[in-house]
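Hi, here's the filled form for the chain we discussed.

Project: internal
Contact: R.S.
Residues: 362
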Amino acid sequence: MTNTLFREGGPHRIRQTGVDSYEMRVSIPTDEEGRTARECPDGTCSPGYFKIKGGTGITEGQEIAFCPYCRHEGDPNDYYTKEQIRYAEDIVEREAMNGVEDMLKDALGLGSTGKRRFGGDLLSIEMSMQPTPKSPVRRPYEDEVRRDVVCPHCGLDQSVYGLATWCADCGVDIFLTHVEAEMNVVRSMLADIPRRRENLGRRIAAKDRENCLEDTVSIFEAVLRALVRRHQQQLEMSEDEIELQNKKRIRTVFQNVHRASEVMTDEFGIQLFEAMSEEQVGDLARIFEKRHPITHNLGVVDRKYIEKARTAEREGREVLVSTREIEQALDLSMSVFQSLHDRLFPSIPAISDPAAEQRSSP
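And the returned structure, exactly as it came back:
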């Protein structure tokens, strides 16, 4: 007679560890790209959700994993998502239901067919058990996370929302790696413009360049916002103080080169363009100013743009944006980010990968 709730062995390698305790292994499904979802154990972390690709990063002897957003440290097994826990619980429930059915069959003396016949000749009784249909176990529902980056230190292939800061395996600050990946997207778009111009025409190519410029300015603003918020947290400002300062003084000023410099100096005593010459700052400001007519006037030069950019372009004509200018703006922006980041945040050493060290040792 079967008197255990779970049958040992099977695909989940079930093992009885006590009178009423069992152990089983549940493999968490990956997405179509082989990535596994993870979630920060700190309930206050936002967004807290990310993905990693198995077989990359620290593959052996990993004792600590990190949240790429808040750098929460924890056991690698602590980062399961709510959907993955639900999935595992559903599998346990299904196995338990199978075990209960087997126990009932054994208790009632039912055979493999689930039936038993009593008596014979003129009088016989047949007893059968019809198991309740079981619902299929649903795979974990996971969100799409479309910013992928490979850690340059441990090699972990990870996906995050927005511009995350930390590597989920080795804990190193890889913020600038995320930024560079975003910029490479713009560079790829720029590289594709000649093909699109040939296939779709000059107007499409011009719109592509305009979109690339808008993306470049957006990256500049987003990166400075992220660095400033991290600096504010480093100064132990409360979230309310941070929100008030950002709403009152910062707002959208990081879209403008000169105003961004003024705010950084006035609010934090930081020289934003310390690593750049006046000529380079002027070039970046001039290129960024072209965003105004693109965003607000369908790319047509207006008087406000002429006054701010101090340009010789004629009012009513379309603003001219070249691929070279956008590439220059990307290079100058990255120089600003690198300089500011290095001054504000000292590097944190990586958690070593024992397997990698063993492979590299003579």
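Let me know if anything looks off before we file it.
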